[in-house]
Amino acid sequence: MDLKVLADLSPPLLMGILLGGLYVLIALGLSLVFGVMKLINVAHGDLVILGTYFGFFAMTGEILGHRISIFGIDPILSLVIGIPLLFVIGFAIQKYLMSRAVQLSMEAPLIIAFGISLIVQNICQRLWTPYSRGLTTSYALKSFSVGVFHIPLVYLVDFIGALIVMIILREFLRRTYLGKAINAASQDRRAAQLMGINTDRVYAFAFAIAMATAAIAGVFLGLTFPFTPTSGVSFLIIAFGVIIIGGLGSMLGTFVGGMILGLAQTIGGHVLNELGLPGAATGQYLFLYVIVLVVLAVRPQGIFGR
Amino acid sequence: MPEETLLKVRNLDTFYGGFQALWNVSLEVKPEEIVALIGANGSGKSTLLDTILGLIQPAKGSIEFDGKDITTLSPFQIVDLGISQVPEGRRIFPDLNVLDNLILGSYSRKARPKKEQNFKMVYELFPILEERKNQLAKTLSGGEQQMLALGRGLMSNPKLMLLDEMSLGLAPIVINSVYKALRKIRERGITILFVEQNVRRSLEEADRAYIMEAGRVVLSGDVADLREEEKVKKAYFGI
To answer: Cα separation of B147 and B174, whole Å?
Structure first.
């Protein structure tokens, strides 16, 4: 391998890792809900996008075709309201919908989640039109240089944001009573009840926390990519890929899963470019999906899966 | 002036997955007693413990604890009132360490302020738990896990402990030390209701016993009397 190939690889390598951070951030909520409640929240991607649109609303004040000019808040700053808002929504979804659905049948929670997905997509479409948007803040368009190459600044912001959220979440789960209770309930629900843990309430908090991370992921997503009301599905698939690769119930696994997917995408895109093949912009995603398939075939429980 | 009876179970009918598991079951436990619940597999012993703790709602009958009606309460409320269950199979949290398992035992509102003194008691009764406090629970031996389960149960500051099949899978020496610990727990004023398949052992350790068969209480009384009962002698001791 000559130096030029190595040097050529560094930007996609770095971008892959940073982008992987965003993917981890998006996947965290999905992983938490599945790990604790064994619930596959197919509305997760759409709820992340709901968080994105809240950031959009805070930034532009645009809603239902009108513009409310008192806004104009930086989307990351708007998380001060966005996080509690999605927290409460998540708490209500688990407490009033999912907890009842689980008692009905195995499929009921999936159907309810699907319903939530449709409702959220249509709300976003109504309020903010189906047109493609972006959270175009001043820094969203900047890049920084590594040697001769330029990398979008938001990628770095995504990565740092992901690290911070991961560390906070991990410490919360390890050190607080509620965090330990969430952990315990995910290992053995009945035994957790015997400890005097109100598992219904603990599950509601777990879902709420997952939604809080979705709010954060939504804003970072909006800063990084253009989005529409239906973007949630693509990111749901990526989030699935992250936890399939990393394995369930492991935060380290989620992190590694995100890195691998980010790298698969960027290195794949780089290879397509180098080979002079067209369609690298969409083709890079192919590599992402192929890696997920490979892991499913070779080690279905994921790298760190239990 | 404490209640005469700590736990009063009256005429309980419980259904479990469509079939009737308990038929008109009544039972009493007085403060600081050790009461045994004896019976073969499927006799309804575990179902009774689960119903007392609120994991299953009875179809008929009532449960009174410390003067309060707890029949319709949720498990977490019942634990907070002072009943603790050490479940069959231990069910310690495998991927948490010993310390976290114990901390979780003190989760309920009333137990949290008593955390430090309960830790002292648990470490006095089971010093090995303090030694292994940073170890993952799944790496402990069977006997150590049973002690952890007991310790965890003690952390919830109970007045009454329900123990479901403590000797399962344990070597006789270990079983001895577990029952020794039980006696020390009673000395600290905690009342005990334990489920045990080994009849001889149960009658040695308890003050009173209830014998269950197919979801009904068929015999009950002081262990001294039960040992003399012809039925017991025939059925369980083959005399």
So the answer is: 10
